[in-house]
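Fold it.
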Amino acid sequence: MSFTRTQIPSFMMHNYDPLPVMPEKASGSHVWDEDGKMYIDFAAGIATCGLGHCHPILVKALEQQAGKLWHISNIYRNKPALELAQALCAATFADRVFFSNSGAEANEAALKLARLYQHRNHGEGKSTILAFNQAFHGRTLWTVSVGGQPRYRDGLQPLPPGIEHSPFNDIEALNSVFGDHIAAVIVEPIQGESGVLPADAAFLQALRDLCDQKQALLIFDEVQTGMGRTGSLYAYMESGVTPDILTSAKTLGNGFPVAATMASSDVASVFTPGSHGSTLGGNPLACAVAGAALSTINDPDFLSGVRLKSQWVTDELRQLSERYGVFTPPRGRGLLIGCPFTQRYQGQARNFMRIALEAGVMVLAAGPDVLRLTPALNIPEADIMEGMKRLGQACLQLERVV
């Protein structure tokens, strides 16, 4: 059966607006459509394919596990899940791990864990979740309510109660709202969806200090920043601030659905049999792939390579910004990079994605005014340079049509 590129089939719900390309196969940072056209992938499945497409180590891990055990449920233990949990704990602050299937589920589990912890230790009055304006934490009803972008909540009212929002990176505002009623604070070390906005080191430290003073829990949403994306295994490792709970997904499975909620033993202890669960969480296939991804990424030389590639990408982007005047110099960390469009091109992010696709390079938007690049962490230098060449062609085309 053939499908058109520009029309959404009648049997699909229309909650997506896909670009007019039908990818058919991919390898590394190259993607081919059904006509054989090759694209340089600077998007990596929205910061998900951290090792590129069809990485041989991950393919091997998947194939080996596929011949053994696909699914058994959490009525039983399975070795890939235990091995992955052990490796994550060894590599981070965490003592215990809960597995699910997506970043939203990992954040949902983190919020439930925090509420349950405070209820057990401080009673019903300490239940409010504090989050930040323009944050993004997922698309479940609770996580979209905690997220600080009203456009994702419109029409879903009534929303779950017990959620407050404060301006991101504003310590004065934080001090004014942080009372004894706060159960937990959830924060992205870099706000990805709202424009690739890094949290200030002083802001994260203020969060940690206030949580300690008020006996609140600090949750780091590292769904997008984790697993090497910023040049460290997790972004918290660069900040000097350690959370009580951390969520991880996206690159954890390199495109295979898997997520983790990690916590200290004290916090995690309130999850007892029956308090939370996931039918497919800890699936042997997913955990086998994630274990291979973790062992590959959590290597000093690999992470050093991410930082080097970040420098190559940002240097090229600065040159493009100077040459064409389409966007301003980049911001972000590692290979999570945002370039705000200049005033003339405000609101053109989605249009630029289409133009870049025509030029043969896949990019992302972070809101209407910011170009976002999240290439594979192991993208070769030659692909970076070719992709930047194509990005320059897209800048020229945007100048012609705007």
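The first strand starts at residue 23 and ends at 27.
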